[in-house]
Amino acid sequence: MNFSALFHQFATWSFRAAILGGLLGVVYLAMRGDADMPGARLVASQAGTPNTQVGDFAPCQPIGQTADGELVYSMDCEQTPAEPVAGTPASATSAK
Description:
Layout: H1 3-32, H2 38-46, E1 64-65, E2 71-72, H3 90-94
Antiparallel strand pairs: 1-2
């Protein structure tokens, strides 16, 4: 029995199997798309349901308070709430 020829045949077929496995993996990933990616699941979980409306979300929350007692809002806030937020001292909002 020629060990060299046997090893050559084994190595050749192992290499061919590895190439085929790689091609199958690439085809699987191409067909599966981004469904396995963590980012796709995150975006899907954050997407609103069709029944969600813009008015259902909480208004802008204050991010701080000045020394005079005025509430500070983020620059991204388009509309600040008209009423004082719960937990804010009444004297701070009615002092003006």
